[in-house]
């Protein structure tokens, strides 16, 4: 209530100023003119005669100039007041509640105020609004697996607040491009365009600059944006990956209209003492103007920079300074500051709330008085979320909000701003429109066309191809309730692994913390974790398998499930089998016999002989022996007990073994979701394509017990679920007959006989 009263008093005082200051000034001037018997001249160009009244005339001239200044100030003030009235109390909440001068909260020195800030703040209320559907251009340099995760959080914060179309220009290495291209393609956010620029091609432009900063060579690439970005792009906002937005980015875009003269760089003053050179004894930073500027947020007027020959300007400065400094400590920031030191007219100083820098020992607390003051938070310390700051808990919670925010909710349309035509989106809408919403199996059919947002290689991944070209990747999929199996599988299988995880945004962060806290998982770099984000009511089991299959780096793959532990040494055994059975030149599917235990604690058999002993004792069983014998009966376990060489088996109805195949094998059929027929359909298609099923005599895997999944519970309890599954199965068989002709008729016959 007190704040409202103060606001009203300020509004009343401002209104009185607008009304009475011009009136009093005009009365004074006209009174002076009546004394002289002459009218008052308002033109500064009008010559003044030399006379005894020259002193009085000079005084009137200065007053005339002051009148015009007052009129201009009043015009600005009226505009501010009208905007304040138009917004009303509801609009003043949140991040739009205050208007700042350039000096407010920045702690500028007097010299900086006089030299730069005064010029920057002279038009503080004349900020033109950004056009409703004007596209805002954002450039980000991104390289590697971790930076790709950071970009997603940054983009979420921007999308959450935005009201304008966005065009992201991503300068990315091959890894980041693969990850982010897939992510944005599957995210399908309206009115968002993505362009990639090859960061590896730009290395030669900056590789000659020694850089001690942890960002490495990629930390210098903002210097070459005038050359990298399209020549017809006039302006761009450049952001570091460790940025979080707390307001609409259009507010920052509007600041471009405040640039004057030769101002081409919009930057916030550095909030640490780094460039003052007093952090430790013999600390010698690069030259900077005052405290220098932070380059985590930059406004670049590209067209003017190109005309000024920016490329030549920064190169000459860097070459000169490197003769004495030898290397950069803060990457591109050092060079930007050295250029500004020589050419201070280039910079337009942004209010510091556009880049609240949360490194240790900064003056960032002077940038805000209230939550509503915050615009952009910059985690520019190597410590990131562990940085020391009085309000770090609040900042951390804001960051975590976007980190765990459901990205699917950001797929909203911008009303009144038509999106560019997207072929994938149009095809999807066409396919969905052809479905009958009154069909009792509509939700099952719709799931086949659902596009799930996908983040590939969520954690760091390294793989060195085997020289003999026999390498095999274990492929599996899982949800959050099977996370505990990861460590055990990694202990049993030393080869590469490709996993698709079906998680929400919040669960993805829980997984990240779990993995980072596990010595076993962190010691393995040949495991590719691909996050498929939750959407819809069904578990898209075959989509997950396809994602994991598509992103393997080896010529062969072992199609397993997350609940199975492979025998010790299976990886090397499969590599030898691949060569012995000439899998490279034949269509074979090598079967790994599957067993199960009902015991949560199992002394895992170290050999086939030990497994057979446990089988005889009732500690182990052939897989699904009690509930679904047909699924694995064709493996012929009786023959396997004594087999010493691989043997061939024929396909039978409902056969669903776990197999090793070449990476070019058919994908799983996406119509099957949740529980039922997802593997059966795949094995049927392998048989239709004339794959030969060969059982390996000295290989085995064991299924570990777990609570029933939600999907199998639905299958058992929901009659409509079973009806729809039967319908989908019949449609799949019909599709097989159409695609493979007469040879596929046996699948219909086998089904009728089973």
TrEMBL record:
Localization (cell): Golgi apparatus membrane
GO biological process, one term: protein O-linked glycosylation via mannose
GO cellular component: Golgi membrane
Annotated TM spans: 12-31
Main location: Golgi
InterPro entries to which the protein is assigned, alphabetical: Glyco_trans_8, Nucleotide-diphossugar_trans, Xyl/GlcA_transferase
Record-level Gene Ontology MF annotations: glucuronosyltransferase activity; xylosyltransferase activity
Pfam families in the cross-refs: Glyco_transf_49, Glyco_transf_8
Catalytic activity: 3-O-[beta-D-GlcA-(1->3)-beta-D-Xyl-(1->4)-Rib-ol-P-Rib-ol-P-3-beta-D-GalNAc-(1->3)-beta-D-GlcNAc-(1->4)-(O-6-P-alpha-D-Man)]-Thr-[protein] + UDP-alpha-D-xylose = 3-O-[alpha-D-Xyl-(1->3)-beta-D-GlcA-(1->4)-beta-D-Xyl-(1->4)-Rib-ol-P-Rib-ol-P-3-beta-D-GalNAc-(1->3)-beta-D-GlcNAc-(1->4)-(O-6-P-alpha-D-Man)]-Thr-[protein] + UDP + H(+); 3-O-{beta-D-GlcA-(1->[3)-alpha-D-Xyl-(1->3)-beta-D-GlcA-(1->](n)-4)-beta-D-Xyl-(1->4)-Rib-ol-P-Rib-ol-P-3-beta-D-GalNAc-(1->3)-beta-D-GlcNAc-(1->4)-O-6-P-alpha-D-Man}-L-Thr-[protein] + UDP-alpha-D-xylose = 3-O-{(1->[3)-alpha-D-Xyl-(1->3)-beta-D-GlcA-(1->](n+1)-4)-beta-D-Xyl-(1->4)-Rib-ol-P-Rib-ol-P-3-beta-D-GalNAc-(1->3)-beta-D-GlcNAc-(1->4)-O-6-P-alpha-D-Man}-L-Thr-[protein] + UDP + H(+); 3-O-{(1->[3)-alpha-D-Xyl-(1->3)-beta-D-GlcA-(1->](n)-4)-beta-D-Xyl-(1->4)-Rib-ol-P-Rib-ol-P-3-beta-D-GalNAc-(1->3)-beta-D-GlcNAc-(1->4)-O-6-P-alpha-D-Man}-L-Thr-[protein] + UDP-alpha-D-glucuronate = 3-O-{beta-D-GlcA-(1->[3)-alpha-D-Xyl-(1->3)-beta-D-GlcA-(1->](n)-4)-beta-D-Xyl-(1->4)-Rib-ol-P-Rib-ol-P-3-beta-D-GalNAc-(1->3)-beta-D-GlcNAc-(1->4)-O-6-P-alpha-D-Man}-L-Thr-[protein] + UDP + H(+)
Residues spanning the signal sequence: none
PANTHER family in the cross-refs: GLYCOSYLTRANSFERASE-RELATED (PTHR12270), XYLOSYL- AND GLUCURONYLTRANSFERASE LARGE1 (PTHR12270:SF48)
Record's protein name: LARG1 glucuronyltransferase
């Amino acid at each position: 209530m007190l704040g409202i009263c103060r606001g009203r008093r300020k509004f009343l005082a401002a209104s009185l100023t607008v009304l009475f200051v011009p009136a009093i000034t005009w009365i004074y001037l006209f009174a002076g003119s009546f004394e002289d018997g002459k009218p008052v001249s308002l033109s500064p160009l009008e010559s003044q005669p030399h006379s005894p009244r020259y002193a009085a005339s000079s005084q009137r001239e200065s007053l005339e100039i002051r009148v015009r200044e007052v009129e201009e100030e009043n015009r600005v003030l009226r505009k501010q007041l009208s905007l304040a009235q138009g917004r009303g109390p509801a609009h003043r909440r949140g991040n739009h509640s205050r208007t700042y001068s350039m000096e407010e909260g920045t702690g500028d020195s007097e010299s900086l105020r006089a030299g730069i800030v005064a010029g920057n703040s002279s038009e503080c209320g004349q900020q033109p609004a950004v056009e409703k559907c004007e596209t805002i251009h954002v450039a980000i340099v991104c390289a590697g697996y971790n930076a790709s995760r950071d970009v997603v959080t940054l983009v979420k914060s921007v999308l959450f607040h935005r009201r304008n179309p966005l065009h992201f220009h991503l300068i990315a290495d091959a890894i980041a491009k693969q990850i982010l291209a897939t992510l944005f393609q599957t995210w399908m956010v309206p009115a968002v365009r993505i362009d990639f620029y090859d960061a590896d091609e730009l290395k030669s432009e900056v590789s000659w600059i020694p850089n001690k900063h942890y960002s490495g060579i990629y930390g210098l690439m903002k210097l070459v944006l005038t050359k990298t970005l399209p020549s017809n792009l006039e302006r761009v906002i450049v952001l570091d990956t460790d940025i979080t937005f707390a307001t609409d980015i259009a507010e920052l875009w509007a600041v471009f209209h405040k640039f004057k003269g030769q101002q081409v760089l919009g930057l916030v003053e550095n909030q640490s003492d780094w460039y003052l050179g007093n952090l430790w004894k013999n600390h010698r930073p690069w030259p900077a103007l005052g405290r220098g500027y932070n380059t985590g947020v930059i406004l670049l007027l590209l067209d003017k920079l190109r005309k000024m020959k920016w490329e030549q300007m920064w190169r000459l400065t860097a070459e000169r300074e490197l003769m004495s400094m030898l290397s950069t400590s803060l990457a591109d920031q050092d060079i930007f500051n050295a250029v500004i030191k020589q050419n201070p007219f280039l910079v337009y100083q942004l209010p510091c709330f556009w880049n609240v820098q949360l490194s240790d020992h900064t003056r960032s607390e002077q940038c805000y008085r209230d939550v509503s003051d915050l615009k952009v938070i910059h985690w520019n310390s190597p410590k990131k979320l562990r940085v020391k700051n009085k309000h770090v808990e609040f900042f951390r919670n804001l960051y975590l909000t976007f980190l765990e925010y459901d990205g699917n909710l950001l797929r909203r349309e911008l009303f009144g701003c038509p999106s560019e035509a997207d072929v994938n989106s149009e095809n999807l809408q066409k396919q969905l429109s052809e479905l009958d919403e009154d069909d009792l199996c509509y939700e099952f059919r719709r799931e086949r066309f659902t596009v799930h947002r996908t983040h590939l290689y969520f954690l760091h991944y390294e793989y060195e191809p085997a020289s003999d070209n026999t390498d095999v990747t274990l492929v599996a999929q899982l949800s959050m309730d099977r996370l505990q199996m990861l460590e055990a599988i990694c202990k049993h299988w030393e080869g590469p692994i490709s996993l698709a995880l079906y998680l929400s945004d919040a669960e993805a962060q829980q997984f990240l913390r779990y993995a980072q806290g596990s010595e076993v998982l962190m010691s393995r770099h040949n495991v590719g974790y691909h996050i498929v984000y939750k959407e819809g009511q069904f578990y898209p089991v075959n989509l997950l398998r396809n994602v994991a299959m598509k992103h393997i780096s080896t010529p062969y793959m072992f199609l397993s499930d997350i609940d199975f532990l492979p025998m010790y040494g299976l990886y090397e055994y499969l590599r030898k089998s691949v060569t012995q059975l000439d899998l490279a030149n034949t269509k074979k599917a090598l079967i790994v016999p599957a067993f199960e235990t009902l015991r949560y604690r199992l002394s895992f058999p170290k050999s086939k002989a030990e497994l057979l002993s446990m089988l005889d004792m009732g500690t182990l069983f052939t897989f699904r022996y009690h509930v679904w014998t047909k699924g694995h009966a064709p493996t012929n376990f009786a023959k396997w007990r004594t087999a010493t060489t691989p043997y061939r088996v024929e396909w039978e109805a409902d056969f669903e073994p776990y197999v090793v195949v070449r990476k070019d094998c058919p994908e799983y059929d996406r119509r099957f979701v949740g529980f039922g027929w997802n593997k059966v359909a795949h094995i049927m298609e392998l048989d239709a394509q004339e794959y030969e099923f060969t059982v390996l005599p000295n290989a085995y895997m064991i299924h570990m017990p777990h609570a029933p999944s939600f999907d199998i519970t639905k299958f058992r309890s929901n009659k409509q679920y079973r009806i729809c599954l039967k319908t989908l199965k019949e449609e799949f068989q019909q599709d097989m007959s159409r695609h493979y002709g007469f040879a596929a008729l046996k699948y219909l016959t086998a089904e009728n006989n089973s």
